[in-house]
Amino acid sequence: MVLNSFYTFSKAIDDCDNDYGVCTGVAPVENRNLNKARAGYDRTHVFVTSATYELPVGRGRKWVNHSKLLDYLVGGYELAWIQSIESGNPFGVTLTNSPNNYYSTAIGNQVPNLACSNISMPGFGLGDKIGGNRFDQAKENPVLNVNCFSIPAPFTPGNAGRNIITGPGLLYSQVSAKKNFALTERLNLQFRFDFQNPFHNYGFNNPSNTYDYKNPQLFGKITGDQTTASFAGQPLMNIMLRLSF
């Protein structure tokens, strides 16, 4: 058995996630300091464990080592498991449909004011908090408190900085099994079975982050998850046969 574990504790800070200074969502010209924050790709905690185990079954092993037929059927399998636990990526909040007049959005995004000293959302287990009505965003349970934001006074910039909220965390598993069939000295046939996300721990996208003054019921709602075949995506099983020579 081979076991490897890795843990990374880090923080990435910038004022623009894109190259060459081409940024979207920048702060207003009145306060460019609001741009400096955690990078959009920052993940504070990343823990990954992988394990591989060759079953002691088949010829030359502890069990079922005298039958060539059983060796072909159940012997020589290798199991693998990868477990990933990661904190979420940060995101910010924008403002729309305010009754007040502000500067033009051409010189910076409009952002709300903060009304709470601590803004956070659940890191894991969001599926239980969204509620049963997942096809109507207005009726879905929010994961962010809309009352933690307010509209700024006319012609003043909001004070909600960039990337001030940590998005949904990641709890993702991958398992696989493979077996090699030595057909001849030069030909090898490999059977492999892979199962992505076997425990159905969905990786959700960041919630809706536009503070809409006219439609506050749409704020802070989870509207999507990672697609199938993506890392942290929906469950997917693959069966593969590979002939190598």
Task: Characterize the structure shown.
By secondary structure, the chain is mainly β. It has one domain (2-244). It is 4% helix and 31% strand. It has two helices and 14 strands; from the N terminus they run ββββαββββαββββββ. The protein has helices at residues 68-74, 127-130, and strands at 2-9, 13-14, 37-38, 45-54, 77-86, 90-91, 94-96, 113-114, 149-150, 165-166, 170-182, 188-196, 210-212, 236-244. It has a six-stranded antiparallel sheet, with no helix packed on it. A two-stranded antiparallel sheet has the order 2-3. It is elongated and about 85 Å long.
Mean pLDDT over the residues: 86
Output the helix-strand order.
EEEEHEEEEHEEEEEE
Total number of distinct structural domains:
1
End-to-end separation in angstroms reads 27 Å
Kindly estimate the percentage of residues that lie in beta strands according to DSSP: 25-35%
